[in-house]
Design brief:
Order of helices and strands: EEEEEEEEEEHEEEEEEE
CATH class of the largest domain: Mainly Beta
CATH architecture of the largest domain: Sandwich
Oligomer: single chain
Strand content: over 45%
Helix content: under 10%
Length: 212
């Protein structure tokens, strides 16, 4: 029996969605997901929405305060606020687990998140490279997996020569990294490689906090 794999929008502690590879021959459809931001929390309006991979999905967001609404992984971000609902549309193509987050206006994490670097979506075996520049000497660079916020890694940039000129970091399952903390010199090259079947996206800065 051929059971269609689905894209599942689930209301958890944070609103998230899981996308599984499609195993169905059914025609793609256009689905709409209605969400509401109330007092900083994201709520699902109506029944749980299930869509098949390959469907076109429109997300409509109403909010009682100004801020940014973000679908991680697909990297759709729209300004929201009181009044007319904001919308964006995407094709449910990538598999994995993704979070919806709401960043209130003026939240510092919106500025810091991904400003130094952010990779494309990495398949198993693909890599992302970042070169340390002079202005980063003496700084600690925090980073995370944009598609899984379970763990944060760090890169310490030494002002003294002699630290590693090249560092390889494995992106593991569940948002983990190995090694988790590294020390490098100015002009060093850092390479992250996805070593698992989960999609990975490496981004600088701490992950945005999910609404409780």
């Amino acid at each position: 029996m051929n059971i269609p794999k689905i894209l599942l929008f689930a209301l958890l502690a944070a609103l998230s969605l899981s996308i599984a590879a499609c195993g169905s021959e059914s025609e793609p459809e256009h689905r709409t997901l209605n969400l509401e931001v109330s007092e900083g929390a994201i709520n699902l309006s109506g029944e749980e929405l299930r869509v098949t991979q390959g469907d076109t999905v429109t997300v409509s967001v109403a909010s009682d305060e100004h801020g940014l609404f973000h679908l991680h992984g697909y990297d759709h971000e729209v300004p929201v606020g009181p009044g007319e609902a904001a919308e964006f549309t995407f094709n449910a193509s990538a598999s994995g687990r993704f979070n919806f987050t709401f960043h209130p206006a003026g939240e510092e994490a919106v500025v810091d998140h991904g400003t130094l670097f952010e990779s494309d979506i990495l398949e198993n075996g693909q890599s992302f490279t970042f070169k340390i520049t002079d202005d980063l000497a003496g700084h600690e660079i925090v980073y995370h997996n944009h598609m899984n916020h379970e763990m944060t890694g760090s890169i310490s940039v030494s002002e003294i020569s002699g630290a590693a000129d090249f560092v390889a970091i494995d992106a593991l399952a569940g948002g983990a990294f190995s090694p988790l903390q590294v020390t490098v010199s100015v002009s060093s090259t850092v390479v992250w490689t996805n070593t698992v079947d989960e999609h990975q996206r490496i981004a600088s800065g701490p992950p945005p906090e999910n609404p409780e």
